[in-house]
Specification:
Gyrase A, domain 2; Alpha-Beta Plaits; 3 domains; six-stranded mixed sheet; 8 helices
Length: 367
């Protein structure tokens, strides 16, 4: 673990029983008490995630809005101050550089939250687009100074409310409040989520992260909060049908193939990848992501082949045992002609072909 990057919470993992793994060059906990127990705890009570490995990039200046409008597939001009927008950076050919959330701090100031493994790549990508342009924009990678904790689950608001005087019910979905005091710590608090449950993200200075982590776990004890690792984070997001970069999105998989057309505004003025995506939409995608459940016993995993009869029609992008549903589920990228809900497909698992049925996603939706 010596050569791996570490979050500001790293030193606390062991005291909470964390089992550490190498996750894309980061030393992160795959679990604390156990993946299924942690998963169910988030669904039923609350869980605290250390997601400080995620990247934060500040984009500011008089041309910040116009610049981001050119970089992003979604309509950045539609955002109000205090609003967060899910979007993509795309290559000219329509593949995805990264999926990210853009926080509008002010008319000339934005925070971009990007995937950990893509932080350096995204930062360079942004700077490259700035070169040879007349945009007056300042770009800063502030990931090292920023820690990110996520409190998720039905008890999340009740727990966090004990640590602030601000009425958290005023923060609606995909909205945020900057410079809020949480247990005396200045924080940007948002409500986006990556688990299918209600919850909050707390962006704080790295130096304050350990104290806040301990405080939330202490104050939330009566409401059943527990620390949650990467394993449950993945099963939770998959049940909720949420994409993971490198699996459901990549340089080879476009947002349209991933059924995320809503976040691609083709009526916008020029943005990177627009022409390719417009052509793809007009022609119709030749393949798409669909959800499935196993009909025979076996757990699907990423990269497993998908068949109809003797024809290989695609591959699994993510798969797992779903603790909430008590079923084996997955997402696969397959030829469009086989993608209808109700169709039976075969998943290649350990030299066997096991039956699965294409079903609607998300697999799980909270009441």
């Amino acid at each position: 673990m010596e050569n791996l990057k570490k979050t500001p919470i790293y030193n606390l993992y062991e005291s909470y029983g964390g089992k550490i793994i190498d996750f894309g060059g980061w030393a992160l906990p795959v679990q604390f008490q156990g993946i299924i127990e942690e998963h169910n705890n988030v669904r039923e009570r609350a869980g605290l995630f250390d997601v400080s490995h995620m990247g934060e990039i500040n984009v500011s200046g008089v041309d910040a809005k116009e610049f981001l409008q050119y970089l992003c597939t979604n309509d950045i001009t539609s955002a109000d101050v205090g609003q967060a927008i899910y979007t993509f950076f795309c290559y000219e050919h329509g593949g995805v550089v990264d999926d990210l959330i853009v926080y509008k701090i002010a008319d000339d100031s934005y925070m971009l939250v990007v995937n950990a493994a893509n932080t350096d790549k995204d930062y360079e990508w942004i700077l490259t687009q700035l070169q040879n342009s007349n945009w007056q924009v300042d770009v800063k990678n502030v990931s090292d100074q920023t820690a990110l904790l996520a409190l998720q689950g039905p008890n999340a608001q009740r727990i966090l409310q004990k640590l602030t005087e601000y009425d958290l019910s005023l923060i609606k979905r995909f909205r945020f409040v900057a410079n809020l005091s949480i247990a005396g710590v200045p924080a940007l608090i948002s409500r986006t989520g990556y688990t299918g449950e209600d919850g909050f993200e707390l962006y704080v200075n790295s130096d304050a992260a350990q104290a806040l982590w301990n405080k939330i776990l202490e104050i939330g004890l009566d409401d059943g909060v527990m620390p949650i690792g990467l394993g449950a984070r993945d099963t939770l997001r998959l049940e909720a049908g949420l994409p993971l970069y490198g699996h459901e999105l990549s340089a080879e998989i476009s947002p349209l193939e991933a059924n995320l057309n809503f976040f691609v505004k083709l009526n916008k003025h020029k943005f990177i990848g627009k022409d390719a995506l417009a052509t793809q939409k007009q022609a119709g995608v030749s393949r798409k992501l669909v959800g499935f459940k196993m009909l025979e016993r076996g757990i699907p995993r990423s990269e497993y082949p998908v068949y109809v009869d003797d024809t290989e029609i695609g591959k699994v992008t993510s798969g797992t045992f779903a603790p909430t549903l008590k079923e084996n589920i997955g997402i696969c990228l397959i030829d469009i002609e086989y993608s209808k809900v109700g169709n039976i497909i075969d998943i290649g698992i350990r030299n066997k072909r096991l039956k699965a049925e294409i079903i609607q996603t998300p697999f799980y939706k909270r009441k």
